[in-house]
Amino acid sequence: MTHSSGTTPKRGRPSRDVIYARFAAAITELANYGRLPKPYEARKLWDDLWALEAHHSTAIEGNTLVLREVERLLHEGRAVGSKELKDYMEVLGYSEAARWVYQQAVAPDEWAHDGLVTITEVRRIHTLAMSKAWDVAPHPDASDSEGPGSFRKHEIAEFAGGMKPPTHPLVPVEVGAWVDSVNELGSRIAAQHIEVSAAPEELADMHRTFEQIHPFIDGNGRTGRLLLNLVLVRLGWPPAIILKEHRRRYLRALDRADHGDLSPLAEIICRSVVDSLHRLIPNIAGPAKYVPLEALADEDFSLVALKQAASRGRLEAIIGPDGRYRSSRAAVDEYRASKYTRRPPAGAAPAQ
Prior knowledge:
The protein has helices at residues 16-33, 43-60, 67-76, 85-106, 119-136, 171-190, 199-213, 220-234, 247-258, 263-285, 303-311, 329-342; strands at residues 291-292, 318-319, 325-327. The protein is mainly α.
């Protein structure tokens, strides 16, 4: 089977060049607003991202908790449902690791090095993500020296797509080289030696390479996605939350990346980062600043409804340089008030 070269779009879908450009525009927009909000400045938004990531990343690996059960577990400390104990422990462990990642990246209290990541942090993230589940259901093949935070001492079978992880004695050296390459990427981005629109494929290469090394006997996918987000938010960019609904597309993209085509994985990362920015941007921008309509959609008004209101002149909006509508939270609130004002109260007599 042959694959397309990368930039020719499917019908109705933007090309990857357009998606990369949107990613770069989103990063520029974030920089114009200042920075990511700190956890104490936008606690609910960060908590929502935290719960979403814990749910979707563990679900990609087979966890059976639904989002409502994850939210109750994380926000209320209640284990609702009748799932296996291991599933609850997986979510709790992952959420602890994700909270640490967000805290260290946005409001660090321990980060005392110049690069984006260290080997110690790689191992710590794995420890946080895996320890709780490991206590109740350790990997059946793991030796005493292969627990959470410890590199594997086993050989890993060839992946379905044909990629073979390195032999286990090489894992520490391979992880060290990976850390060096990530920190070198951070230096190039900081020095503006790489265009932001080129960063998605660099990030895809970084994520692909970690998964190829497969440094732990279990939990490599979860740890790799957490490390991707540690790098993203330390760069000052929103985290990437890969949805469980995109699991097959994500796994196919990883396989394509193993065979040299990074663009599908880069596209997934782009879309995930932009989606996270749309969740965060109202708190960053303030009520009067114009932001993409995607960032303003809520339970009252879907994106489609906002687009219709803007096109009919009922919602104050402009068309941005990317050709998409932009409005403000204040304008949406004004539209909401006017809409409810026009609506007759229930039981009211018809106008005479």
